[in-house]
Amino acid sequence: MIAGAKLLELLLKQGLIQKDQAEQAQKESARVGQPLETVLVKSGIIADEELTNVKASIYGIPYLDLNNYRLDRELIKLVPEKIAKKYSVMPLFTTGNALSLGMVDPQNIVAIDQIRKLTNFDTVDTILISPGGFQAALNTYYHSYGSMSDIVKTIEREKAPSMQDALLGEINEQTPVSKLVESLLLQAVQQRASDIHIEPEESIVSVRLRVDGLLHYITTFPLTILSSVVSRVKILGGMDITENRKPQDGKIRTELEGKDLDIRVSTFPTLFGENVVLRLLDKRAMLPNLTDLGFNKETLEQFSKLITRSHGIILVTGPTGSGKSTTLYAALSKINSEEKNIVTIEDPVEYVLPRVRQTQVNARAGITFANGLRGFLRQDPDIMMVGEIRDKETVEMAIQSALTGHLMFSTLHTNDAPSALARLTDMGAEPFLISSSVIGILAQRLVRMNCIKCREPYAPSSAVMQTLGLPEGTKVMRGKGCPKCNQTGFMGRIGIFELMFISDEIKTLVDGRHSAAEIRKVAIEQGMKTLREDGLEKVRHGVTTLEEVLRVTEIE
Questions:
Q1: Residue 284: how many other CB atoms lie within 10 Å
Q2: Which residues contact 460 (CB under 8 A, 6 or more apart)?
Q3: Sheet holding 98-103, edge to edge
Q4: Across the strands, what pairs with 87?
Q5: pLDDT band at 33 (very low <50, low <70, confident <90, very high)
Q6: Residue 289's closest CA among 4, 19, 533, 45?
Q7: Residue 318 pLDDT more than 80?
Q8: Closest alpha carbon to 452 in 124, 7, 44
Q9: pLDDT score recorded for residue 14
Q10: Are 236 and 251 in contact (CB under 8 A)?
Q11: Which of 358, 301, 350 is nearest to 321 (CA)?
Q12: Closest CA to 480 of 454, 461, 457
């Protein structure tokens, strides 16, 4: 591992990162106990391949981007998968009796010696490759299960196992059905998917992955093997494989691609069989920082100041999948300290926060958001977080908590910040209590980010320009598609935000039961930047596309 100070010095010298980013990465590295290189890449400060190229200059050896390089499958056979995984190495090419070996850690002398003995080459020359490039090559050239279509053919040829087979324990890790399920999970991880949808239709089963918020098809298989696949998923999830008429929930814990996955499973009976959705959560993922979420400087400063208030309700709003929970975790991480007692009730718990007492909703045990809050008040809390405000009882408990000196965080499903106040009123809360307790509302959406490897300038259509009121011929950025981003042009997502403070004037409007539109007008006059405006600012900086901003924001 290269010394962090030396690496940062070179990155700063080459203008690849900014000073504040370097300081942020150093602090995060110390906080989570992960190498600086890992933090730089995971936080999106610099791309994996770009960082590796810089490291190569420090090591004084060549660098190769494996994402754009085709390996010799015959040469690959010289290094067993077990050895390749153990040392993170990949045989690249030969020159005479010298083997050029791609290595994530070129200083691993033990690995070089073992590869030399194993392959009988006189010389082993090292070439630096990135961890991401190595993992992609490993999946492409070493994956032993073959393609999903090959596995499906094997299942059909050998006859799909029945429920009786499952009950007798005949669907084990070595069966083709098990390999098919693992292959689906593996592909989902490789494509950075958050969800897998297994959807029965009249004669086939479609499989879709949700990547960066959008679903896309990856494969189909015959309906005849659906019950076997569902049985395998249920076995992994600790569910009842004999019950196919009622919805079920389960949980799978496994490790794939170096990720410790916590997979939530949901099955639901449909006309043609059970529909299955698997939600993938990486339990080793770094806790988010507010600085990583996409706030512009002004909004970040305002929100950071808001969450240090001693009491009141702070709401984060947006549709399902807009990143509300992530923002709440980031806010709690920011204000988490030894002097504060923080308690949460969530559905489910997605990140484990140090020093925070976290509880999960459990309807069977009688733990709901409302009575969880009631119980928290006897736990001497300073700060409370409830995953979502869904009903009158939860609203009333949240208001009571805020008015008795507690700082309360929660979420609502509304389109924008002003609408949250109307939603609370609709739930039965008294307007004067809302205006006395709510101190700020953050609305947000997630937009897909341009792939930094293949983004290029382009001129949007006249219709888009006209909709946004931008001059004709304005040049912005978009990804054209490359192997790094699976030809989508996008890589990852970032937030766009709308932060509204509850000023005296807005309190008066709430008390008078004025509409969300009237409150919105005043908030904008008082300086609130709308979701659309924040999105357009990110477009101007080349972070995302105009079409993405149009997709997730309302016409204003």
A1: 11
A2: 470, 474, 476, 546, 547
A3: 89-95, 98-103, 123-128
A4: none
A5: confident
A6: 45
A7: yes
A8: 44
A9: 85
A10: no
A11: 350
A12: 454
Q: pLDDT tens, 116-152?
A: 999 989 899 999 999 888 887 887 777 544 566 777 7
pLDDT, residue 144, reads: 47
Retrieve residue 404's tokens: 């008795």
∠ CA 513-325-47, rounded to 5°: 130
Instruction: Give CA–CA dist 425/435, Å, rounded.
Output: 10
Q: How far apart are CA 305 and CA 297, in angstroms?
A: 12
Cα distance between residue 186 and residue 226, in whole Å: 19
Angle between helices 4-13 and 19-32 (to 10 degrees): 160
User: pTM value?
Assistant: 0.72
Length of the chain: 556
Q: Which two tokens stand for residue 6?
A: 């030396």
- What band does 88 get if pLDDT is binned at 50, 70 and 90? very high
CA atoms within 13 A on the CB side of 441: 32
Beta partners for residue 204, in sequence order: 222
Contact 317, 419 (CB under 8 A): yes
Q: What is the pLDDT of residue 145?
A: 45
Helix (H, G, I), strand (E, B) or coil at 285: coil
CB atoms under 10 Å from CB of 476, counted, come to 22
Residues 157 and 264: their CA atoms lie apart, in Å, by 31
More confident residue, 173 or 154: 154
Q: Kindly give the interhelix angle for 176-190 and 226-236, rounded to the nearest 10 degrees.
A: 70
Cβ atoms of 556 and 536 within 8 Å: the answer is no
Question: 501-538: per-residue pLDDT in tens?
Answer: 999 999 999 999 999 999 999 999 999 999 999 999 99
Q: What is the dihedral of CA 458, 463, 465, 468, to 10 degrees?
A: -130
Query: What is the per-residue pLDDT across 183-212, written as a single tens digit (0 to 9) for each?
Result: 899 889 888 899 999 999 998 999 999 999
* 3-class state of residue 396 by DSSP: helix
Higher pLDDT, 453 or 525: 525
Distance CA 221, CA 149 (A): 8
CA distance 442 to 408: 14
Per-residue DSSP letter, 7: H
